[in-house]
Amino acid sequence: MKRVILAGGSGFIGGILAKYFHKAGYEIVILSRAPRGPSLDARTEYWDGRTVGAWAAELEGADAVINLAGRSVDCRYTLRNRKLILDSRLDSTRVLGEAIKRCGVPPRVWLNSSTATIYKHSLDQPMDETGEIGSTPEAQDAFSIEVARRWERAFEQVVTPQTRKIALRSAMVLGHGRNSVFPVLRRLVRFGLGGNMASGKQFVSWIHQTDFCRAVEWLLEKEDFNGPVNLAAPNPVTNQEMMRILREICRAPVGLPSKHWMIEIGAFFLRTEPELIIKSRRVIPGRLLKSGFQFEFRTLREAFEDLVHN
Ligand SMILES: NC(=O)c1ccc[n+]([C@@H]2O[C@H](COP(=O)([O-])OP(=O)(O)OC[C@H]3O[C@@H](n4cnc5c(N)ncnc54)[C@H](OP(=O)(O)O)[C@@H]3O)[C@@H](O)[C@H]2O)c1
Q1: Protein residue closest via CA to atom 15 of ligand 1
Q2: Any idea what the CATH number is for the domain that residue 295 is in?
C-alpha cells in the first residue's frame, strides 16, 4: 500500500489531505507533538518536530513526506511568537532532512510547506514562480518574507539525491476546517461586516481545498517536478471583489467596510496582524498550468458557491 507521511498533519491542511489520500487508497501517518488515537483516515505517531526519534522509521520506503508543521502565523508577531513561527518551520524541515538521509529506501518525494506570501506586494503584476521576492513597508511584511526565505533556504540546503523536493508556495486554502479563513469570512459577511477591507484594491490569492489536494497528488505523480510550485487558483481577485461575491452568495445586503486604521486596531484586539489582510498577493499557478493541471474551481465564485452550499 502506498504511504504518505504528514508531518504536522493534525491541523487544517493535514485534515483535508488525510481524508483525500485515504480515499485514494493511501496509508496515512501523521506526525504530531500530541498524538491522539487513530482516526478513520490516519494513524498518528509522536514526534517533537526537532529531533530524530522512533518516528523516523515511518519514512522508510514511504511514497511521500509532506511537511505541514509550523506555529500558526495568525497571531501577534511578538518576539516569542516570531521565534516560535521561525523555529518550528526551520527545525521541522531540518529534522525531516536528517531522517530522510538515514533511510535505506528514502521516500520518493518530499513536499515542504512554504507560502505564496513570499512574493512582493503586487497590485498589477501577476506573480508566477519567476515573480519577484521581497518585502515592502506598505505591506508590513518584512518578518513574513524573512520567514519564507529562510524556510525555503533550509529546505534547499538539504541534499537528498533519491528524494525529489518541492516547496509548496500555497495561497490561502479555502475549506471548512478549523484554522481555515473561509468560516471567518462567512461569519463577517453574515454579521453585516463583509465590506471592503482597507482600500479593497489589494489582491487575494486563494485555492479551493479540493484543488489543493488534487494539485498535491499531481505533484506526487509527476516525476519531473522539483523546486518551488505556486499552489493558487488561476484567478486572484481584489479584496473588494472577494467580499462582494461572498455577500451575494450569502444574500447579505449590507457589508460595512473596514478602514486601514480599523484593521490595525481590530488586529490588535483579535491578536493577529494587519499584514494578513492588507498585503496584495497576486499569485498565479504558472508551473501547474504549464504542466496541464486542470483546476476544478477556477473562479472564486465557483469556490464560494461550493463551500457555502456544501
Ligand atoms: N492554511 C492555509 O491557508 C495556508 C496557506 C499557506 C501556507 N500554509 C502553511 O501550511 C502549513 C500547514 O497549514 P495549516 O493551515 O494546516 O496549519 P495548522 O492548522 O496550524 O497546522 C499546523 C500544525 O503544525 C504543528 N505545530 C504547531 N506549532 C508547532 C511547533 N511549535 N513545532 C512543531 N509543530 C508545530 C501542529 O501540530 P501538533 O500540535 O499536532 O504537533 C499543527 O497541527 C503551515 O506551515 C502554514 O504556514 C497554510
Answers
A1: 12
A2: 3.40.50.720
Phi then psi for residue 289, to 5 deg, are -65, -40
Question: Tens digit of pLDDT for each residue in 179-207?
Answer: 889 999 999 999 998 999 999 999 999 99
Distance CA 219, CA 104 (A): 23
Residue carrying the nine cell digits 487558483: 233
Residue identified by cell 511537511 is 67
What pTM was computed for the model? Answer: 0.97
- For residue 38, what are the domain limits? 3-309
Q: Ligand 1: does its nearest atom lie under 6 Å from the Cβ of 113?
A: yes
Does residue 37 contact residue 29 with C-beta atoms inside 8 Å?
Answer: no
67 lines ligand 1 (CB under 6 A): no
- The answer to whether 192 and 252 have CB atoms below 8 angstroms apart is yes
- Secondary structure E strands in 182-226: 203-204, 206-208
Q: What's the number of domains the chain is made of? A: 1
Determine whether the shortest distance from the Cβ of 140 to ligand 1 is under 6 A: no
Using only C-alpha atoms, the chain has a radius of gyration, in whole angstroms, of 19
Task: Among 5, 6, 12, 85, say which to mutate for ligand 1: greatest number of ligand atoms within 8 Å of CB.
Answer: 12
d(CA 271, CA 268): 5
